[in-house]
Design brief:
about 300 residues, alpha/beta, six-stranded parallel β-sheet, three-stranded mixed β-sheet, globular
C-alpha cells in the first residue's frame, strides 16, 4: 500500500513542489497540506486537481494522518518549532523529509530529535528557482540512511525534480551543507552580473550588448538573472522570487561555516553588504536580484532603472 503523504509549508517553492507531487507523484490518497496561514493552503487546494488534496486544520492532524511528512519552511527557527510540535505525538515509524535551506547544525539536530522519538529523517534541500519548482525541474539533494532515502526518491526525479544528488548513508547535515555552499554560487553570480551590468551602463557598452554576451556564453541562470535586471523585475515584483531576508540568512550561514572552518568567503561578504542595502531600500519585498539596484546606487545611479 502506498504511503500517505503530507506537505507542510506553502511558500513560493512549496506550492510548486506540491503541485508536482499531486500531478506526477502517483499518490493513492489525496495529499494532506498544511500551512500556518490556512488561507494559503485553501487557495492552493482550489488550484490543484479536484479530490487530489485535503487541507489539515492543524499541524498535529497533518502529522498524525501521514506516513511521510515533507516540510519546506523559510528559516531555522520555523523548522525547529514545527518539528518540535510535530514530534510531540506518536510519530514512531513515520518519515520526515525536510526541504528547507538551513544550517547543517540545525539539520543534524533535527535528525537527533526525530530519531529519539522513533521516527526517521531525510534531508532533501533543493536547488532551483520557483519557476523550476512549478515545472518539476529542481535538483534534489538527499542525505540520511539509504533505506529512508530510497523511500523519498520516487517523489524526486521525474516528479519534483530533474535530478538527484545522492548522499545516502551520510549525515543529513551534509545535504544542507552543500545547499548553503551551493547558494553562495548563486549569490556570487548575482553580484557579478550586477557589477557587470552597472559597468556596462556607465562605460558606454550598454546592457543589451552585455546581455548578448551572457546569453551566448552562459545560457541558463546567468541569462535569466541578466534578463530580470534589464527588465527591472528586481524591484517590480509583489512577491520576490528569492526574498532578500532569506538570501541574507543563507549568507550568514555560509559566513558562519567559513569562519568555523578557518577560511573566508570575501565575495559573500561583499554581496551581503549589498543585500543589506536592498533590505533598507525595499524592505520585505526585496529580492536577491535587487543587488543590481544596490550596486547601481553605490555607483551614483538610481536603484531603479531610469
Amino acid at each position: 500500500m502506498a504511503p500517505q503523504l503530507a506537505w507542510i509549508g506553502l511558500g513560493n517553492m512549496g506550492r510548486g513542489m506540491c503541485k508536482n507531487l499531486v500531478e506526477k507523484g502517483n499518490l493513492s490518497e489525496p495529499l494532506i497540506i498544511f500551512n500556518r496561514t490556512q488561507q494559503r493552503a485553501t487557495d492552493l487546494q482550489s488550484k490543484l486537481p479536484s479530490g487530489k488534496s485535503t487541507v489539515a486544520p492543524t499541524l498535529d492532524e497533518a502529522v498524525a494522518n501521514s506516513d511521510i511528512i515533507f516540510t519546506c519552511l523559510g528559516d531555522d527557527a520555523a523548522i525547529q518549532d514545527t518539528i518540535a510540535t510535530a514530534i510531540k505525538g506518536d510519530v514512531k515509524g513515520k518519515l520526515f523529509v525536510d526541504c528547507s535551506t538551513v544550517h547543517p547544525d540545525t539539520t543534524n539536530m533535527l535528525a537527533k530529535s526525530i530519531g529519539a522519538q522513533g521516527a526517521h529523517f531525510v534531508a532533501c534541500p533543493v536547488f532551483g528557482a520557483p519557476a523550476m519548482a512549478d515545472n518539476g525541474q529542481l535538483v534534489c539533494v538527499l542525505a540520511g540512511p539509504k533505506s529512508d532515502v530510497e523511500k523519498v526518491k520516487p517523489y524526486c526525479r521525474g516528479v519534483m525534480g530533474r535530478a538527484e544528488i545522492d548522499f545516502s548513508d551520510q549525515p543529513q547535515g551534509k545535504a544542507t551543507l552543500l545547499k548553503i555552499i551551493g547558494n553562495t554560487f548563486i549569490l556570487n553570480m548575482v553580484e557579478t552580473l550586477s557589477e557587470g551590468h552597472t559597468l556596462a551602463e556607465k562605460s558606454g557598452l550598454g546592457g543589451e550588448n552585455l546581455h548578448n554576451f551572457i546569453e551566448t556564453m552562459f545560457p541558463g541562470p546567468y541569462t535569466a538573472y541578466s534578463g530580470r535586471m534589464m527588465a527591472g523585475d528586481y524591484y517590480k515584483r509583489e512577491e520576490p522570487l528569492f526574498n532578500v531576508n532569506l538570501a541574507r540568512k543563507d549568507a550568514r550561514h555560509a559566513l558562519n561555516l567559513a569562519k568555523a572552518a578557518g577560511t573566508r568567503m570575501k565575495d559573500v561578504e561583499v554581496a551581503d553588504e549589498h543585500l543589506a542595502a536592498v533590505q533598507q531600500h525595499m524592505g520585505s519585498k526585496g529580492d536577491i536580484a535587487g543587488i543590481y539596484g544596490a550596486v547601481r546606487q553605490e555607483s551614483g545611479l538610481k536603484f531603479e532603472l531610469e
